[in-house]
# Entry
Amino acid sequence: MHIVVCIKQVPDSAQIRVHPVTNTIMRQGVPTIINPYDLFALEAALALRDQHGGEVTVLTMGPPSAADSLRKALTFGADRAVLLTDRFFAGADTLATTYALATAIRKIGETFGAPDLVFTGKQTIDGDTAQVGPGVAKRLGLLQLTYVAKISALDLDNKTIEAERRSEGGVQILQTRLPCLITMLEATNEIRRGGMADALRAARAEVVTWSAKDAGVEDITKCGLRGSPTIVKRVFAPQARAEKATMVDFSDTPPADALIAELFKRQPKLETELATLARGY
Amino acid sequence: MFELTEDQIAIRDMAQTFAREEIAPHALEWDAAEHFPIPTLKAAAALGMAGIYVRDDVGGSGLSRLDATLIFEALATGCPATSAYLSIHNMVAWMIDRFGAPEQRAKWLPKLCAMDLVASYCLTEPGSGSDAAALKTRAVREGDHYVLHGEKQFISGAGASDLYAVMVRTGGEGPSGVSTVLVEAGTPGLSFGANEKKMGWKVQPTRAVIFDGVCVPVANLLGAEGEGFKFAMAGLDGGRLNIAACSLGGAQSAFDKALNYSGERKAFGKAINQFQALQFRLADMETQLEVARTFLWRAAAALDRADPKATRLCAMAKRFVTDAGFEVANEALQLHGGYGYLADYGVEKIVRDLRVHQILEGTNEIMRVIIARALVQRGN
Ligand SMILES: Cc1cc2nc3c(=O)[nH]c(=O)nc-3n(C[C@H](O)[C@H](O)[C@H](O)COP(=O)(O)OP(=O)(O)OC[C@H]3O[C@@H](n4cnc5c(N)ncnc54)[C@H](O)[C@@H]3O)c2cc1C
# Structure
């Protein structure tokens, strides 16, 4: 089995400071990290590999310094790292990014074997769009499972995968055919810690580095700033919504009863609706 | 050797991450509760840090002494005493790897490297510390057993450890009468004193170990009779580098705290780091740390290539780095003013922990004895 995991190197938002005078984000000197969501994707991929055998290739598009993040991914146990780096890729929006990544994944398939699974994180902490995973799937013609909380089964013989997808109001259990792309939700697993041997292997590993040409990009106008129709009009912090907290008096009722009473008071129809529902059972 | 290799940087980064995430957040709590963090030590072992310079056929990491100093310095930035305990365990594992028979290596090392067994090193006695070769704990051979009588003092990890490397007297007086035997916890006749109340190193227990007719199979003798003192001293060469590295890591972390604090704390209308008197002290502290680190690496590299001067260089490193480390940590406390004296700021713990590094694994006076002895004897 071959799994490709797309990761992105992002500024560590916990360490970003806002310039006190100009109010702009100060990126200089901010350490970079692997996008935290991508670590859940990486761990899910590594766990599948450990269970079923095969290889995990990590892929990133970014400046040459993004090799650090790839090496980090190798210390967690990834088998191979591919860095897609070229000045033509700079300034890419999600459309241009998915074009470049999809091209690179095709090339990875030709070079190292076609992937059975492609993983991405749900979104990045610097872009927050959640568009790249689905975009890559679309370009590669892969089936996709988004917002996955857990891979519940993988059947390599029949080429099927079953996953729990968190959706509003519940959990969907979905099954699909391989190859497919999965975007992983946060807090679904805990990334393993690489040991001394992994650290050494990562330090000695060669990061496969491809330019746009190496990766087989055919249309350079679809890359980077030129391939990015998105225009950012304004960046702003959303207004905090003013919501008043309600004080509930627990002094002479047990907390649960007091809360339920408060709920019924706010939703006058709820009590009768529930009673009707209950009669139906 | 004035730059680390990529391998060494990777090893150091790994240990630093472990210290930052698994040790540092708990260090003050462990210290206050006198909690010995065995699960954390085992987690470090799972990553390859319990048999750092043990050969890899038995689960060791097969790294160098220099690599080990990087690891212990990194771990000590989280907690010097936790790091130092791991050093003692590594020292025992190495003694078995280096001097043990193949069966002994196969029997003990996989478990020691995984820390399924935790080890202690027992040399000091109530009546003999610096003059370790005067030790009196006796082992008398009876058939295929040794029977041990005597008492060890100040043993780190005692009571919690599973395996004790004990220096005992099997022959006449002096170093040539000393042997090393391995004693398992639970052996009848083996008991422990109370956990000593001490200034620092509170995250690990220190107890007397008492041998009252403890029966140990002859198969647990390391090497031959009479070689024990040599083994104990060889272990300490590396141990001293590690203890120095632990001082360095602790001092570095105290310095980093002081550097931060001096930028935030205001007095007389400005941040205190704007006073030149204070800037000079920061400059001196940083210089001390860098000089100490550079020399520590040199001594470690000498031990790695079995340089004939290695013992002397290790003694110099232990003396210089543990003194410099303590001074820097103490100075970092001073720069914090009254807050440095409060436990919450984490600096006083480092000072308390580093103080004992000037005393154990050979006092810093004894380091001078070792250095001077070589000078005076050889006249070089
Ligand atoms: C917290 C802690 C943990 C320890 N853990 C261990 C352990 O795990 N295993 C173990 O075996 N030991 C351990 N020790 C013991 C430690 O190694 C000894 O305390 C140390 O070697 C000093 O011995 P001593 O205490 O008997 O001091 P002494 O030898 O009595 O020395 C007293 C003073 O005299 C000085 N002195 C002695 N001889 C000379 C000389 N020839 N020239 C100049 N000055 C001299 C010493 O430097 C010292 O200042 C530990 C000690 C402590 C405090």
